[in-house]
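Re: beginner question about structure tokens

> Can someone show what the tokenized structure looks like for a real chain? I only ever see the sequence side.

Sure, here's an example I had lying around. Input first:
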Amino acid sequence: MDKVVASAAEAVADIPNGASLAVGGFGLNGIPQNLIEALLAQGATGLVTVSNNCGVDDWGLGVLLYAKRIARTTGSYVGENKEFERQYLGGELELELVPQGTLAERLRAGGCGIPAFFTPAGVGTQVAEGGLPWRYGPGGVVAKASPKKETREFNGRRYVLEEGIVTDYALVRASVGDRHGNLIFHKATRNFNPLCAMAGRITIAEVEELVEPGAIDPENVHTPGVFVQRVVMVGKTGKRIERATTRKRGA
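And the corresponding structure tokens:
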């Protein structure tokens, strides 16, 4: 039952080339930076990532992207990253854009064993009709586009069929975790982390604080240990503010 491993490097050592990864966080909030950096050092390439966004140029998934380790990504927001733009428009990176709520539900569904579900989000747009550029070719032509999805009417309203997401691995960051893998996420860090933890076949959690089994009140557990296979204690390292907004003194 003790799922603790000695280091982030050991935790990601067996991730192979071409593996799919669900990666928690929102912007730079609650991202598993230590695991990402360990994976960068480990050398796996051709990765397929699922995350709300792909970090920034020098932080988060952006470091893997800059090293050209990511072949395909699924996400909702791809701004704040010039290298992402360059690779995508240059045909080096495949991108599946998904409405944010749909992405969250696809991860949750995958973790619950639900293969697909209907949602109104995207009906009447290219999300449902197809044609969104997934990959560009030479000269800016669309080399691969999103397919048309099944739609159906329920009670007079149309819905589009979306598939659940299950990945080979999931990388998440928690505020507190115990040796059995039970996790707590403080405040906004509870963003996509619990959903990604559910979606991974092998979920690896870096935790700021490691406690003994029984120290976490069961009512306070956000992600049960059944979803987590490895835990590594990293302390409060690997945290950065995405964009500091300040006002002048005395204002």
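Each token stands for a local structural state, so reading them left to right follows the chain. The two ends are 54 Å apart (CA to CA).
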